Hints:
Layout: H1 6-18, H2 22-35, H3 40-52, H4 56-69, H5 74-98, H6 102-113, H7 120-132, H8 136-149, H9 154-166, H10 170-183, H11 188-212, H12 216-227, H13 234-251, H14 256-266, H15 268-278, E1 284-285, E2 295-299, E3 302-306
Antiparallel strand pairs: 1-2, 2-3
Helix pairs in contact: 1-2, 1-3, 2-3, 3-4, 3-5, 4-5, 5-6, 6-7, 7-8, 7-9, 8-9, 9-10, 9-11, 10-11, 11-12, 12-13, 13-15, 14-15
Protein name: DnaJ (Hsp40) homolog, subfamily C, member 7
Keywords: Membrane, Repeat, TPR repeat, Transmembrane, Transmembrane helix
Transmembrane segments: 265-288
Amino acid sequence: MCPKNASYYGNRAATLMMLSRHREALEDSQQAVRLDDTFMKGHLREGKCHLSLGNAMAASRCFHRVLELEPDNSQAQQEVKNADSVLEYEKMAELGFEKHDFRMVVFCMDRALESASACHRFKVLKAECLAMLGRYPEAQSVASDILRMDATNGDALYVRGLCLYYEDCIDKAVQFFVQALRMAPDHEKARLACRNAKALKAKKEDGNKAFKDGNYDAAYELYSEALTIDPNNIKTNAKLFCNRGTVGSKETTFEVCEKCKKCGVLGVLTLLIQLCTSLGPFLVLMFLQCSCHFRVCKTNGHWIDNP
């Protein structure tokens, strides 16, 4: 009835914000200030919507426009500080990600999300870093929350696949990577992860086949090649080390020191399992001058870790 009334758009925007429908609220706020550029509440609400959605730069411009109209507006002054904080946390997170300091990124995103609660980009970055830290349930929870609101979000699909990939659920992971690429064909991370997942599965299967056929040299090489594909995939690599150790036991060729060096990554327990599998014929094994400095002995039929 009154399509030219800025206040009506502003009031509807306020209602939509209360319902957490920030994108729709943003459209109404922008329409309100297009109709009346001096409508202070319209600029303020537009800024709040931008900030909630993670666009701190645009939010800051809106809040400064409010201050031009009302220099003493305390709410706008506080929101400018909030927008500046989000920008700062964004920069810190970017630097942290480049340095693989994923804990720092998670911290920064948690702080940024206090002001930008509806920003999927921040949530996805946090989820990806949680996955890189091995905190898969938390990462999957964040990604699933996003997908419930936006089933076509390629980044969230990628994170879901990444968690499954690192938990050695290769087939399911590939499905999510393919779906992510369907939603975002230029998603480079999903493309690389999908390629690695398929290559890892193929190499492992080829190694298993060679082992079953009694071709131990080929199996050893295939497992070794598989181990170079993705050093970050701890669970799959642990199985590959175990398989390669089993192959070594068949040829009496053991990489004890090399395995010992890997224990810092794979964990002592995993290493012990590998050694028990591959070095079963030996009664006593002592590892000296290795990076982890521990010995494994078999006493009375039990393996003992002596730091």
